[in-house]
Fold Non-homologous end-joining DNA ligase.
Amino acid sequence: MTPITEVEGRRLSLSNLDKVLYPATGTTKGEVLHYYAATVAGAILPHLRDRPVSFLRYPDGPRGQLFVTKNPPPGTPDWVRTAPVPHSEDPAARQVVVDDLAALMWAANLVVEFHTPQWRAGAPGTADRMVLDLDPGDPATVVECCAVARWLRERLASDGLSAYGKTSGSKGLHLLVPLEPTPSAEVSAYAKRLAVEAESALPDLALHRMRRALRPGKVFVDFSQNSASKTTAAPYTLRARTEPTVSAPLTWEEIAECRAPEELVFRADDMAGRLERYGDLLGPLLDPARARPLPADRPDRSRPPAD
């Protein structure tokens, strides 16, 4: 019998609560739902609110079928908000917006990763933050990502911008920068210039090109997720990995002091203690007073390396 529960006045059917989703840790679907409801709801909801959500679904766990859902799934309740997504190939496309606890629990029951764009539903294509996804190519690890992140932090500071870090929940790091509302195309262009500069300044470590042959041992500074059509794993989302790893906000001390990859692996059961100790380390992204404009155009500090 499917359990029925009520969340903020909404009736929800929660299914297969005893199903083991993460065999490495024995984590069940019920524990995943508890993580979202009891551990991180207060932290994740402000980062999801008013942003159309893409889901990476893994209903049978990370070892089962994984598929991306952008359109509202069949059976989406009529009380779950949706918003148009004008940058989709389908002009009538809409996506779910997770604005409250009931919507969060409905979505979590589908077993999903949450991915959001850098813009809000009310201003599609106008970014209020920038993201740089630091992705290591084996044998590089998150340790090398941290070195690139420190350089990018200083470079951003020279333009009056503040960066905040989180793990990707997989192998790398994400740097997030609060911005005054700016067209996504302009943010993308600026992010690409930063990636090119990082490669010029750290030629043995950083890379701005995605070409696989160039990736081993280096950190790809992926600027492409600033495109209006792209999304990034949301803070605090669980990832479809062997264990229930989290895209976890970090302190700059943790980034500076990282000496081994396992130091920056955080799982669902780590997050209650981290939130109690630090609060939401990405809170500044939600504060309009922290937003800054992109710098005025100026000549690049470096010449793009030849492709």
Observations:
- The mean pLDDT is 94.
- The helical segments are 29-39, 41-48, 101-108, 142-158, 184-201, 252-257, 271-278.
- The longest helix spans residues 184-201.
